[in-house]
Amino acid sequence: MMHDICQAPVSLEDATLVEEWNGMIRAFLAHGTATPTHLSAVLSGAPQFAMGYAAKGLFSLMMGRKELYVVAREAGEDAIAALAVSGGSARERLWVRALGEWLDGRPSGAIAAMERILAEYPTDTLSAKVSHAIRFILGDGVGMRASIENVLDAHKDHALEGYLYGCHAFTLEETGDYRAAEAVGLKGLELATDDAWGLHAVAHVYDMMARPDAGISLIENNVSAWDHCNNFRYHVWWHKALLHLDRGENDIVLALYDQQIRADKTDDYRDIANATSLLMRLELEGIQVGDRWAELADFAQTRTDDGCLVFADLHYQLALGAAGREDAQAAMSTRFAIDAARQGEMPARVADPGKAALSGLNAFAEGRYDAAFHDLAAARPAMQTIGGSHAQRDVFERMTIDAGIRSGMYDATEALLEDRIARRAGAVDRFAATRLASIQDTRRIPAQ
Ligand SMILES: [Fe+2]
C-alpha cells in the first residue's frame, strides 16, 4: 500500500492521486482555498477511496451548518459503500467511523477514532489536525494540548513539522503558557511559511498579553502566511482589528471592518462571529456602528433553527438583539429551550451554558443590565465548552463586565476583571484598565 505525506497508508493506487491527496492535506493544514479542489480531484480519480468521502463529510460538519449535515450524511453513505468494495486500511475505516460518530451526535467519538489512528501512526498530521479541530469546536483546550504533545516527537524532521508546531502553539496559548506558545509558533512559522493557524496562534498570544504592537507587526510582516487562505483570512483581519482596538484606534478598526472583515458579505458562521463580536466590542467602547448590524441580522435570522453550535447561535443572537429583530430572538430562545431538554453532547451545551448565556444576551439587548449580569455570570464557568478561543469568547466576558458596571455590581464585577487579568498572566489590556478605572471613579466619594 502507498503512503501519504503523513507517512500513513493510503489505498490510492496512482502516485498522481497520492500527490493530489498530499496537496489536500497541505491545503487543509494551511487553511488554504485549494482543499476542496484537491479532494474532488482525488475522489474523481479514485471513486472507491472511502477516506476521501469521510474527509468530505468531516469537513462539512466542521462548517457548523445544519444543511451541510445532508452533505455529510451522503458522504458517510458513499464512504461505507466504498469500504464495502475496497475494504480500506484500519486508518480509513477509523475515519469513516469518526464521521459516523459525529453524525450520530457524538463528536467526542470522532475524536476518539482520530486518537486511535494517532496511537498507531503518530506521524499522521492530518488526523492530528482533525482531532485538534473537533476539540476546538468542543472547547477542550487541555485535551487539544495533550493530543498534539503526544505526537510531537514523531514529527521531528517530518515534512509537515511546522504545521504541527502551529497547532501546538495554539494549544499552549489556550492553556495559558504564553511564552512557550510564542516561541513554538514562531519556530513553526519558519518551517511552514504559509501556516496561517500558527501565525494566528502567536497573534492570540499578543492579544492575551496586551502586546498590540507586536501582534500588528507580526500580521503585517507575514502577509504570505495568511493571504492565501479561505475565509480564515477574515479571521486574521479580525485579530488585527482587535489589536488596533486595544491601541484605541477605533477608526482603523471600523475601516478594517468595512474594507476587509465584511468586504464580502459571507454567511459562514465564523465570519458572522468575527463581525458581530467586533461590532459589539466597538459599541461597548461607545462607538456608533451605524446600520452595520442589519446585514448580519439578515443572515442571523435565517439561522435560528440551525442548532449546530451554541458558539454560532450566541453570535447570531448578538446581531438579532442589536438590530432589534425581536421575533427571531424569541425563535432562538424557544429553540434553545427545546434543544436543552434533549440528550447528547451538543444539547448538554445548550442546557449549560447556552440557555443562561442566551438569556443574558437578550437582557443586555433590552438594557436590563442587572439580569444580563446575573445570567452571563451564571453561564461563565461553562462558557469554554461552547468552543472557540479565549479571544473569541471574550466578547461575552466584556458584556458581562459592562453589564455589571452598568447595574452597579461593582465588587462582583471587579472580581471578574481580576480573574480575567489572572488568566492573562497579569496583563492588563485597555478594556480592563478602563473598566477598573471606571469602578474606582464610581466609588470615589465626591468632595463636599
Ligand atoms: Fe483566533
Largest sheet: 2 strands, antiparallel
Backbone structural class: mainly alpha
Percentage of helical residues?
over 70%
N→C terminal distance: 86 Å
Low confidence ranges: none
Bound molecules: fe (ii) ion
* Total number of domains: 3
Radius of gyration from the CA trace?
22 Å
Beta-strand share of residues = under 5%
Q: Number of helical runs?
A: 24
Question: Strands across the major sheet, in which order?
Answer: 1-2
Count of beta strands: 2
Helix/strand order: EEHHHHHHHHHHHHHHHHHHHHHHHH
Question: What best-fitting shape do the alpha-carbon axes yield?
Answer: globular
Rounded mean pLDDT is 97
Top keywords for this entry?
mainly alpha; binds fe (ii) ion; Serine Threonine Protein Phosphatase 5, Tetratricopeptide repeat; 448 residues; 24 helices; 72% helix; 3 domains; two-stranded antiparallel ribbon
